[in-house]
Amino acid sequence: MIAIDTNVLIYRVSEDMENMPRETKALIEKAKNKFSQVYGKHEQIAIPMPVLIEFANYLRRKIGTSKANEKIDDLIADENFKILEDREEYIHMANSVSEEYGADFTDSLIYTILYVNKINRIITYDKDFSKFKDIEIIK
To answer: Measured at the alpha carbon of residue 15, what is the angle toward residues 84 and 110, in degrees to the nearest 5?
Structure first.
């Protein structure tokens, strides 16, 4: 199983790229292409709960609560995705991971959820994940 990070979901729905810098446009296109390479062609794509929460917050700011809720419901219902829940003990583990690696807490929580679920590949454009040596970053 492969996981995706919030930035991949955000880039996937990015459409208004007209006024963006060329580098940003290239990154968004790269992310969309990478997502297309895995969606529906392999095993399920794991979405850790913190990724889903960050994505929902992003959508609510961009398109409003009602439309965001529809998109999140569609994502949850899509059999190509598997939502990975977090648990109280993961919070404690993520605190330790964050301290040990000097990483952002949310990224540490995502990493912890992946680690516990034995998932060692993630599509992300977040540099913090390079701090975790036992996870392969797919770009």
So the answer is: 20
28's enclosing H/E stretch is helix 22-38
d(CA 79, CA 93): 29
Using DSSP's 3-state secondary structure scheme, residue 135 falls into: coil
- Using alpha carbons, select from 82, 84, 83 the residue that is nearest to residue 42: 82
pLDDT tens per residue, range 21-40 = 777 777 777 777 777 777 77
The answer to whether 95 and 84 are in contact (CB under 8 A) is no
The residue extents of the domains of the chain are: 2-138
Which CATH code for domain 2-138?
A: 3.40.50.1010
